[in-house]
Amino acid sequence: MTTATETHKVDAKLVKELRDKSGAPMGDCLKALQETKGDMEGAFVVLRKRGMASAAKKATRTTNEGAVGTYIHAGGKIGVLVELNCESDFVARTPEFQELLRDIAMHIAATDPRYVRKEDVTEEDLAREKDVYRAQAAATGKPANIIEKMLEGKLSKFYEEVCLLEQPFIKEQTQSIAQIIATKVGKLGENISVRRFARFKVGAPDWTVAQTKLAAEEPQA
User: How far apart are CA 39 and CA 41, in angstroms?
Assistant: First the structure.
């Protein structure tokens, strides 16, 4: 149990450093550092877990506001459009939301994901990947139960490669895009979701356009 005396043992500089790193409120940073007895990395993990929990609670709330952001890669060779939604126009105009929008657009320019979420992967693509991975695993001669575990690992890697929310954020590889969004949800107090994005590259034979299944099912105006 943390006592009042122990509370004062947390260096204010550590609290500020954790605040700058996580974007979480100062009070939450102080509590996390108290719980981990000043362990910066441990406190950061605590805040990440709480951010994901907070985001999960808000995930069912409607996001009808938001903004469209753009990112043009140096030299104008790659361009990205992304729609990021939230619950109010007020939050959409905050510097924190706009920063997140730009970061996601920049990330898409760099990594070229094919889908927004795991749930958006088409049945055809998923079936094809499973067939390939199952054949590769079977070729090892391992037992069936081991093959299934290998398949799970391969699919997890596949999702990380093609699904935006599963990808490690290019500016902070220890966190996924979903976790980056969750941190902002915890800070801004509103549900935030990526609805769709498009990525264009000069000279490429095709381009990437992705949207969530929920967006695709909405009636057209």
Answer: 6
Give CA 137 to chain center in angstroms: 29
Could you tell me which residues come within 8 angstroms of residue 185 by beta carbon, excluding any fewer than 6 positions away? Answer: 51, 54, 55, 58, 191, 192
What are the E-state strand segments in 123-214?
168-169, 172-176, 193-201, 208-211
121-130 contacts at long range (C-beta below 8 A, 24 or more positions apart) = 121/159, 121/162, 121/163, 129/154, 129/155, 129/158, 130/155
Structure tokens that stand for 82 in this block: 């992304």
Grouping H, G, I as helix, E, B as strand and the rest as coil, residue 2 is coil
Backbone angles phi, psi at 64, to 5 degrees: -105, -5
Read off the pLDDT of residues 107-138 as tens digits, 9 standing for 90 and up.
999 999 999 999 999 999 999 988 888 888 87
Q: Please count the residues of the chain.
A: 221
Q: Is 74 helix (H, G, I), strand (E, B) or coil?
A: coil
What is the rounded distance in angstroms from the CA atom of residue 4 to the CA atom of residue 2?
Answer: 7
Residues 6+ apart with CB under 8 A from 162: 113, 114, 115, 121
Mean pLDDT for the chain overall: 84
- Report the C-alpha gap between 159 and 19 in whole angstroms: 31
- pTM of the predicted model, to two decimals? 0.71
Look at residue 69 in the predicted model and tell me its pLDDT: 96
Nearest CA to 198 out of 16, 70, 26, 63 is that of 70
